[in-house]
Design a protein that fits this description.
Blueprint lengths: L1 H5 L13 H12 L10 E6 L2 H7 L14 E8 L9 H18 L3 E6 L4 H11 L5 E10 L24
Antiparallel strand pairs: 1-2, 2-4, 3-4
Helix pairs in contact: 2-4
Bound molecules: flavin mononucleotide.
Length: 168
Amino acid sequence: MQEIFNRRSIRKFTTDAVEPEKIDKILRAAMQAPSAANQQPWEFIVIEDKENLKKLADVSPYAKPVAGSAVTIALLGNENEFKVPKGWEEDLGAASQNMLLEAVHLGLGAVWLGVATSDVVIEQVRSYFQLPDHIKPYGLIAIGYPDGQKNEFTDRYKAERVHYEKWA
Ligand SMILES: Cc1cc2nc3c(=O)[nH]c(=O)nc-3n(C[C@H](O)[C@H](O)[C@H](O)COP(=O)(O)O)c2cc1C
């Protein structure tokens, strides 16, 4: 699938809005992801308001692309939906990747901004959205039309990382 190979993190966007149908497709792609015991533990917050995007960009020193994005989608885990509690982050990871690939497919650029990777950022996101305790911050996907950067292939294949039948 060409989208897998061409996808890159796009961090600079034009001022063009992303069409509502495209945002809908990205959300549908997210919810199509596999999940442990089919628990589908995800929730999403769609942010398009420019002032809100600027404020949200401050939740992490590495989330600056949010400020210039046309739309950012926050991914959250809903503890009330957990059947396999240890699986929720993997489920959300699969949903995140689906969103990035669908964005490429739609001619957009996107970048995954880690939240669950830092306790400090988790708390910042929790406080920004005033989340109840059972809703767990996972990540942000900033999306827009690429400005300058392109989705283009970079070869990362490492034959030495592939093992056959046994480790050694
Ligand atoms: C869990 C995770 C967290 C990430 N967090 C950030 C981030 O906070 N800020 C950022 O600019 N990029 C972030 N990225 C994007 C990576 O930096 C990027 O995927 C990596 O450098 C490879 O580049 P590529 O996506 O262009 O192939 C994150 C990616 C993942 C999977």
